[in-house]
Amino acid sequence: MTAMTGTDVSQMQLPRFSGIPTFMRVPYATDPAAFDIALAGVPFDGGVTARPGARFGPREIRNMSTMMRAIHHVTRFNPFEACRVADVGDVPFDDLYHLERAHDDIRRFFEPLYRAGKIVLAAGGDHSVTYPIFQAIAPQKPIALVHIDAHTDTWDAFKGSKFTHGAPFRRAVEAGLLDPTRTIQIGIRGAQNSDEGWRYSLDHGMRVVFIEEFDALGPAAIAAEARRVVGDGPVYLSLDVDGLDPVFTPGTGTPEIGGLLTRETLALLRGLDGLNWIGGDVVEVSPPYDQTGNTALVAATLMYEMLCLFAKRAAPGAGA
């Protein structure tokens, strides 16, 4: 029997309001041999410093992802035809109320996926979840990062914890998981009570693109700059929905006005095609603040765009 190279998309033929609401209506699977790209939920917001609710993010993103279709209207690329894509479910938590031990649960969930050589696209959850995902990747050398966000997330301790959603990339640099000189942070803005995060990023060689520079140069130029910074080594893509203007993503914990437009974000992502992707996440969707569901819809659409990038990398023969 010939092995299946694409995704079973039979669920996509059902009415959108029916069927099991997996991410983009792909099959649910747990055996890494059954898929090339894993879509996973991380329903955790124990690391927030402001408004909670991102624990409900994966469920609502799944719901809105039923609006996704298969073929990209610009590239005509079909990620589900190119690769086997599966929803692997949500991280199960044994120790939900202790931040660091909850992070251990996240790490343990993702470790076998990365050991099996899969590309994983995660839906958060708050941004603290990216650090244990990096731990699960366990790279031989520090990886590169494209980070879209209003905040650098390189602060240190907050109210006694060094593992909040404001600290994942500082912790990753300290642990030797992330190469700061191959990291670009895009969309940074908003007043702070301390310049600690900005200083840490800049002092450690991260390329910080404040929103004013993004506005002046545009998404194509910033995408080219991102490609220069990360190079051809393994790279991770982390997208906090507060990087977009809260007009588009009001359902988030730390909104900052004056952010990226949805069309700019799509153009930026499309300009990153062909990089050596190993995984990514979309985080900080907080449904209690998302009365219309638009934030979850934006997150689901951005996940689809990221899936297209990753599927081109994971498709059979792509690395040849």
Automatic annotation (TrEMBL):
<comment type="similarity">
    <text>Belongs to the arginase family. Agmatinase subfamily.</text>
</comment>
<keyword id="KW-0464">Manganese</keyword>
<dbReference type="GO" id="GO:0033389">
    <property type="term" value="P:putrescine biosynthetic process from arginine, via agmatine"/>
</dbReference>
<keyword id="KW-0479">Metal-binding</keyword>
<feature type="binding site">
    <location>
        <position position="240"/>
    </location>
    <ligand>
        <name>Mn(2+)</name>
    </ligand>
</feature>
<dbReference type="InterPro" id="IPR023696">
    <property type="entry name" value="Ureohydrolase_dom_sf"/>
</dbReference>
<dbReference type="InterPro" id="IPR006035">
    <property type="entry name" value="Ureohydrolase"/>
</dbReference>
<dbReference type="InterPro" id="IPR020855">
    <property type="entry name" value="Ureohydrolase_Mn_BS"/>
</dbReference>
<keyword id="KW-0378">Hydrolase</keyword>
<dbReference type="Pfam" id="PF00491">
    <property type="entry name" value="Arginase"/>
</dbReference>
<feature type="binding site">
    <location>
        <position position="127"/>
    </location>
    <ligand>
        <name>Mn(2+)</name>
    </ligand>
</feature>
<protein>
    <submittedName>
        <fullName>Agmatinase</fullName>
    </submittedName>
</protein>
<feature type="binding site">
    <location>
        <position position="151"/>
    </location>
    <ligand>
        <name>Mn(2+)</name>
    </ligand>
</feature>
<feature type="binding site">
    <location>
        <position position="242"/>
    </location>
    <ligand>
        <name>Mn(2+)</name>
    </ligand>
</feature>
<dbReference type="GO" id="GO:0046872">
    <property type="term" value="F:metal ion binding"/>
</dbReference>
<dbReference type="GO" id="GO:0008783">
    <property type="term" value="F:agmatinase activity"/>
</dbReference>
<feature type="binding site">
    <location>
        <position position="149"/>
    </location>
    <ligand>
        <name>Mn(2+)</name>
    </ligand>
</feature>
<feature type="binding site">
    <location>
        <position position="153"/>
    </location>
    <ligand>
        <name>Mn(2+)</name>
    </ligand>
</feature>
<dbReference type="InterPro" id="IPR005925">
    <property type="entry name" value="Agmatinase-rel"/>
</dbReference>
